[in-house]
Amino acid sequence: MHVSSSILYASLLLLLLPSTEMKRPGKGRGLRGARHKLTRDRVRGVGRHSRSDPSRHVKPECSESSISGDVVVDCQNQHLNSVPASQTWSKEPKHLLLARNQIKVLREGAFFGYESVTSLDLQQNQISLIEEGAFQGLTRLTTLLLQHNRLDTLSEEALIPIPNLRYLRLYDNPWKCLCQMDSLVRTLQVPSNRNLGTHARCAEPIWLKDMKLKQVDPELLCKEMNPKGDQQVNQMDLIDPVEPRPIRTKPDATTSCYTYLFPQVRMDCSNRGLTEVPRGIPEDVVHIDLSNNLIHHLRPRNFKGARSLRTLNLSNNNMSHIETASLLGLLHLLELDLSDNNLHFIQYGVLEDLYFLSQLKLGGNPWVCDYGIHYMVYWLSLHPGVRHSGLLCHSPPEHTGKSVQKYVHSYNMECPKDRQQSRTDDEQTDPQLWNTALEVQGEMEEELEEDPEDELEPSHLRVQQKYQIRLY
Prior knowledge:
Strand content: 5-15%
Largest sheet: 7 strands, mixed
Mean pLDDT: 78
Radius of gyration: 37 Å
Structural class: alpha/beta
Number of helices: 11
Low-confidence stretches: 15-57, 225-244, 418-429, 431-445, 447-472
Oligomer: single chain
Strand order of the largest sheet: 11-12-13-15-17-18-20
């Protein structure tokens, strides 16, 4: 009986061994199951922190705010080297700001959990690689900022998970316009994608350098791959079809400056070595900083089209001259900073369009207290709501350090001898006396006093003289 039980047990064991062998991972259904599990884990987010990454586990010092009901997560300038986990935030963000960090690679699934994000700012990082699945799940994303990075190639496949993308910035990246860029270039050149990749230019090869991606003929990108290996002939073939690039005489605002979208559209053009105001300032820019450049001269219509501008910083440019109409059109400007320049006076009419100005910074300029400074004081007296600072006389020596307003007040109170007239001011400025018999008689008496030997013309040959306002 005991022997029979042992034999039965052994038989059952042999029967079970094949089924166990079949279910070992790595064979048949086991491999398919492993793949299914891996896919399921990716969808659920399991294993997405497997790469060693301290920033995944340490909560960054970012801010959460709400603008018009949309949650904004601001992680700018936090020394991050990867995208923080979405569970970090108390609410799902609509706008994710990751500019000015140290992110080098965007891995597959990097934005898992950010399905609600509509705008993503990744500019001014060190991104050199974007894996195909990096933007997976960002189906609501409409704005993607990738300018000022180190990208040299990007395929269209990386953008496929973003079906609603309407605004893409790629400029200031060292793009290698070779065969790998074919699909991206063709996508950018679709007419309906007019806001995708504007201003992005080729850095290599040399015969396509500085050509816009939107203008490069996609057929040229793969001509480098010559089966005969004759690259020199290939390069010559490429040169002929390329149209000559126009001479760029003035810097472009979009490519010369850093643009930030939140909380309001702001352009940072400071410390860029600019010698003039860049052209093409977008209409929606609210704040622009042009400080610490070399803009010595403001010219008419420099800010044409910048209708939304609220603050303008032109400090520390060694600026010496502002022409009338330089600020034309800035009807909604609230703050203007002209401090630390080389201004001696403000030309008549410069400030006439600034109806809503509330703050004016003028310190650090060598203001000359003579008649030329009167316009500034006159304008400020008509706009008492404008807070201003730094308006002090620098010269002449007798007025150095004095308030410009006090100088103008003393100028108007004191009447120098060379400005005194034989008649009273009322007689000179009363419109009722202009071109009357009394006025003509007075002119005749003056002429007789100046040269009594000259004979006056008959009255019917005399032409009435217009009243002239003389400035001394």
